[in-house]
Amino acid sequence: xxxxxxxxxxxxxxxxxxxxxxxxxxxxxxxxxxxxxxxxxxxxxxxxxxxxxxxxxxxxxxxxxxxxxxxxxxxxxxxxxxxxxxxxxxxxxxxxxxxxxxxxxxxxxxxxxxxxxxxxxxxxxxxxxxxxxxxxxxxxxxxxxxxxxxxxxxxxxxxxxxxxxxxxxxxxxxxxxxxxxxxxxxxxxxxxxxxxxxxxxxxxxxxxxxxxxxxxxxxxxxxxxxxxxxxxxxxxxxxxxxxxxxxxxxxxxxxxx
Length: 257
Prior knowledge:
Blueprint: H1 2-7, H2 9-24, H3 32-52, H4 62-84, H5 91-96, H6 103-129, H7 141-165, H8 169-183, H9 195-201, H10 205-217, H11 225-249
Helix pairs in contact: 2-6, 3-4, 3-6, 4-6, 4-7, 4-8, 4-10, 6-7, 7-10, 7-11, 10-11
């Protein structure tokens, strides 16, 4: 697969370039939407959850807490949604020439990854403006990006496989994402919940990845060994299962056009 990836690197670049052109075609602000979107979302959610539901995060700034969770979760949400439809959306290309099919979900995760890097600009602006501050542990943040990317790619390949055989998955996953939004502590602190519910929410790999990043950004600490282990295991297991499921079924895709 790595040899194929090198061989088809030009195609991968073209797919990513095409996604950028399609997304920002005839858009006045263009890439600036990648910066404005998380800021606008943060403002709306901050107003609702701090004034209506009275949410707070003792010891850390709520805006920085909220935007960190939003930035990471939005990457997962957008990447998996695009990866899920990547194979189905490229059937016309698959029918004509041989292409390693995992290129399609991979290109979507990389494309959203570039937008993800852009969203770090407003995130760091909030970190600085709220007085949260920078620290030496920020050098470990790229590790959290790697965990997030591997976990998302694995889930994207699983969803891309299922959607070929079950088109209802496009609708089902929308509901799953809505549930996952509230089961991931994006806008609230998990410690405010009942311990039994906390245990259930901690089974969500996104919780550990987001907590890993928040430990660095908000609490100025080195993530614990348990946090490292949880993120490593969940990301690698997701990727491994995704690769196995995708590789086992990719030859059947052509029959489900």
